[in-house]
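Just wondering, can you check both lines?
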Amino acid sequence: MDTAATEPIDVSEFPDSADAQWQQGNVVEVAIADLSDSGDGVGRWERRVVFVPDTVPGDRVAVRLVRVKPQYAHGKLQQILSPSSHRVRPGCIVADTCGGGQWQPLEYEKQRAVNRPQVVGRWTTWASRSLVGGRAGTPPRKQSNLSPGRSGNGAGIQAGYYQKGTHRLINLNQCPVQDPRLNPS
């Protein structure tokens, strides 16, 4: 989805009251400040947290609210109003659909800066060790969770990454974020 080239969102259609706008299906404008553990962008709208896949810290975006709770919501990116200075073109051609590519639109040094506190927070016994990253320009991935499935014609078995939000395997010959020894020669 080329979100930067879509028609502008008309904010004059937004309801006046913040509570009236905090409804499933409505569009809100959010500045993304951080990333969640799963790689979703995290921003705030009227002191409420909004999780938005396919965004990076520094993006200013229009988001359609898809799952709304009193203090937080999950949204779907509608348009990048102003891209982050940390946004880069992913190194993988299926990064936008692959469930393993959510960190790729974020420049490598920013990935490390965002990922380090998350790792340290989870593994406090390892807090004094330095985070070892992946190859230059890739996220720090030390594990690949490949899922099995039938090949397209159903005759064989294959393993790979799921497409985001599905149990369909991505057709991918090599992955830039996994150990290169796992790619076919």
Remarks:
- DSSP finds two helices and seven strands in the chain.
